[in-house]
Hints:
Elements: H1 10-14, H2 16-60, H3 68-87, H4 91-99, E1 106-114, E2 119-126, H5 129-141, E3 145-154, E4 167-175
Antiparallel strand pairs: 1-2, 2-4, 3-4
Amino acid sequence: MKIDINLSTMRYRRSNAPYVLIAALVAIAASWSAYNFFNYGINQKRIALYKEISARNERKSPPAAPPADVRQIKEKVSLINGIIIQETFSWTGLLTALEQSVPDNVSIIELAPQFTEGKIVVKGMAKSMKDVLEFVSRLGGSKHFTGVFLLKHSEEGIPSSLVGERLTFSVSAVYAREGTF
Length: 181
């Protein structure tokens, strides 16, 4: 019969456990690093391939122009919007605002709204340049008109019996439609 006496303590036996644990963690970290390094290389190759494909596609196809159908639809929509603006234009509101701005010695001959720009051109006759300037200043002071500008004035086109008594003029202004101011 053989007797085996182990004189080492438990502490000695347990001291190998931390080394085994450290060795296992180092092995896991090394394998994880190798895996990431391998994936990095693969992903770099993919990125280079995608860049090459993207550059090739950009060289091949210039930006596409919108199809003719889209352009035609846009033209129709803008035409319909213009008709709606013209149909909803309040002539009564314009004439009321204009009536409040016209001085005594000024007569309005023609009104020409430019619906797309929101402007209106007023042609008229006045007794003197002072009356024309008063009309322009009244329009500019009105809350209904902005950007008032005297386009032209002259004594041309007036019958010879009225020369010296009448002056023709054209004024441009932006009309703020009702509900927009």
